[in-house]
Amino acid sequence: LHVEGKVYKLPVVRGTEGEKAIDIAKLRDESGFITLDTGYKNTGATKSAITFLDGENGILRYRGYPIEQLAEHSTFLEVAFLLIYGYLPKKAELDKFIHEVRTHTMVNEDMRKIFDGFPVNAHPMGVLSALVTSLSAFYPKAVGLDIDKEKEYLDLTIIRIIAKLPTIAAWSYKNSQGHPLNYPKNSLDYCSNFLHMMFSLPVEPYEVNPVVARALDKLLILHADHEQNCSASTVRLVGSSHAGLYSSIAAGIDALWGPLHGGANQEVIEMLQEIHDAGGNVKQFVEKAKDKNSGFRLMGFGHRVYKNFDPRAKIIKKAADDVLKALNINDPLLDIAKELEHAALNDQYFIDRKLYPNVDFYSGIIYKAIGIPINMFTVMFALGRLPGWIAQWLEMRRTKEPIGRPRQIYIGETARDYVPV
Ligand code: MLT
Predict the structure, then answer these.
(1) Residues recognised as catalytic
(2) Which of 28, 71, 200, 396 could form a cystine bridge with 206, CB 3.0-4.6 A?
(3) Residue 3 belongs to what H/E stretch?
(4) What is the pLDDT along the chain (421 residues), one digit of tens a residue?
(5) Ligand 1 pocket residue status of 9, Cβ below 6 Å
């Protein structure tokens, strides 16, 4: 087999006892292929018409529309519609979609009983995942749904999850603060409503800053989908058994919670803080990053698929400037981040390795400025990624993918006789 100029020798029969299996991990690392086995179907590799990603040239498009144009001119709910239904809605369609989302933001009061059982130190992602799973119990018809015959119920299920996730996310934050819950204020737009539920206190009316609400909307757009990744393929795999949308999304949330997937912007903030606390000598840390034995790693640089600028990073950098200016905040971490980016992008070591800032490099600075604590960063990622997960789930169902069942290559013991002790 020839892959990009390299020759791989594959055994004729795989997986049989005694056969020396090919080293899939090595092959994957060297060739960039996840697998050559179509048996993996919608788990390891899949065809998709949702998000186009060209990591070599730093291009990202949703349904053909460049991310830059969507971030500049669209709104998160319009982008959600685009990802889920595949086209940009006409004004009347979008108004209807927004109206429906507004009317479903409330969460069943019985779910409060589940919520009240969480200790104050519960991680917000644990609360989010558990409450999204429990939506399946409240709306059991969503499980095993015939998506062609029950289209209306499917649409309602999609509306419900989009409408309720910000409410549940804000609950998870309020729990961690020990604060009373705020009910949704449906006269507000999607992001302003979320900010209201997060930060309004009964004693202190909270004014939603429009620049902050817009920046948040943009952040959600930028996180809305990223083709196949750990959480997206988890959603597809769980959904391939015809599990309901809520449980599949909950599984995606759990996949995202893992620090290797959703934890990077937290690591960036911690790194920036470490540099700041050590006196802010950026050049010294750039040198440390090059020394493998220093124990210091540059977080928020490089990405599995981008060998060029992550197009989302540029937009987020500008949004960070806008938010800090609007809130009159002078965060030394933003200055350190910019210095770090400049130093690294002019250093041959990073140039050779094609290490550019990724989506996580500046987003934490915005969240920090808004007052969103670090343990909520992954929850914010989940809010943004929701339409992508829904679109991936729907596409997998519409294209009638079979139930996922990754192929196994057995590498264990050959047959042994059981000898009782
Ligand atoms: C991202 O948005 O960068 C991700 O979901 C991670 C990935 O693409 O693997």
Answers:
(1) 303, 360
(2) 200
(3) strand 2-3
(4) 666 666 666 554 444 444 455 565 666 666 655 554 444 444 456 889 999 999 989 999 999 999 999 999 999 999 999 999 999 999 999 999 999 999 999 999 999 999 999 999 999 999 999 999 999 999 999 999 999 999 999 999 999 999 999 999 999 999 999 999 999 999 999 999 999 999 988 777 788 999 999 999 999 999 999 999 999 999 999 999 999 999 999 999 999 999 999 988 899 999 999 999 999 999 999 999 989 899 888 899 888 888 888 899 999 999 999 999 999 999 999 999 999 999 888 989 988 888 888 889 999 999 999 999 999 999 999 999 999 999 999 999 999 998 988 777 788 999 999 999 9
(5) no
Task: Look at ligand 1, atom 1, and give the residue with the nearest C-alpha.
Answer: 226
85 CA distance to ligand 1 centroid (A)? Answer: 22
Whole-complex ipTM: 0.92
Name the residue at shortest CA distance from atom 2 of ligand 1: 226
26-49: burial string, b at 16+ Cβ within 10 Å, e else: ebeeeeebbebeeebbbbbbbebe
In sequence order, the β-bridge partners of residue 61 are: 52, 66
Side chain identity at residue 113, one-letter code: K
Q: Are 236 and 404 in contact (CB under 8 A)?
A: yes
Q: Alpha carbon 277 to chain centroid distance?
A: 30
* 260 ligand 1 Cβ < 6 A: no
Task: Report yes or no: 176 and 121 within 8 Å, Cβ to Cβ.
Answer: yes
Q: Give the residue, by CA position, lying nearest to ligand 1 atom 9.
A: 229
Q: Report CA-CA distances (Å) from 357 to 275, 341, 378, 380.
A: 17, 7, 19, 19
Q: Which residues contact 263 (CB under 8 A, 6 or more apart)?
A: 377, 378
Sheet strand arrangement including 51-54: 51-54, 59-62, 65-66
304 lines ligand 1 (CB under 6 A): yes
3-class state of residue 59 by DSSP:
strand
Residue 359 Cβ inside 6 Å of ligand 1? The answer reads yes
Query: What is the Cα–Cα distance from 267 to 141, expressed in whole angstroms?
Result: 40
Query: Which of 180, 199, 197, 181 lies closest to 189, judged by CA?
Result: 197
